[in-house]
Design brief:
Layout lengths: L26 E6 L2 E6 L8 E5 L2 E3 L15 E6 L2 E6 L9 E5 L2 E2 L12 E6 L2 E6 L8 E5 L2 E2 L4
Antiparallel strand pairs: 1-2, 2-3, 3-4, 5-6, 6-7, 7-8, 9-10, 10-11, 11-12
The protein binds zinc ion (3 copies).
The site of one zinc ion (ZN) has 8 residues, from loops.
């Protein structure tokens, strides 16, 4: 039987197909409960997983998508009102939810007093920022161009 000298070489992967850094098998993108990530198609022999960064596998998590309160990962979700982001620490009592700003979490500000998120509210004299923990935390800040003016 003729020996196929190329037989030991894995077939060339299609261009741009990310490969497992451990076993060189293709990776696949998995929509997990905690958001998308990449797993090895060699699973369960190879249990390599990687973070998802802009649709590509990455060894480091995307810091843009970190909860501003507890630094856990944020996950994009969709409801009837549109896309939003929630913190994967929700089962650890982190209630952070952020609006979606063109596919990334909208910028958020933390209350200097209690560390929770501020919320933009509309009052009689226009917009202002109050703590999301109102009425437990009653700090407020003026609004300037959609951002809180935090003076203390
Ligand atoms: Zn692998
Ligand atoms: Zn959080
Ligand atoms: Zn507060």
């Amino acid at each position: 039987m003729p020996v196929d000298l190329l037989g030991d070489t894995p077939p060339a992967a299609p261009a741009r197909q990310p490969l497992c850094p451990v076993c060189r098998k293709p990776l696949r993108r998995i929509e997990g409960r905690m958001g998308p990530f990449w797993g090895c198609t060699g699973y369960p022999d190879c249990k390599t997983t990687l973070f998802d960064l802009d649709g590509k596998p990455s060894k480091v998590p995307d810091e843009r998508y970190r909860c501003p309160v507890c630094t856990r990962r944020l996950v994009r979700a969709q409801n009837a009102q549109g896309a939003y982001w929630y913190c994967t620490g929700y089962d650890k009592a982190c209630k952070t939810r952020l609006a979606d700003d063109n596919g990334v979490p909208a910028k958020a500000w933390r209350c200097p007093s209690c560390g929770q998120l501020l919320k933009r509210r509309r009052g009689r004299n226009g917009y202002f920022w109050g703590c999301s923990q109102y009425p437990e935390c009653r700090h407020t800040w003026p609004d300037k161009d959609g951002a809180p003016v935090i003076t203390s």
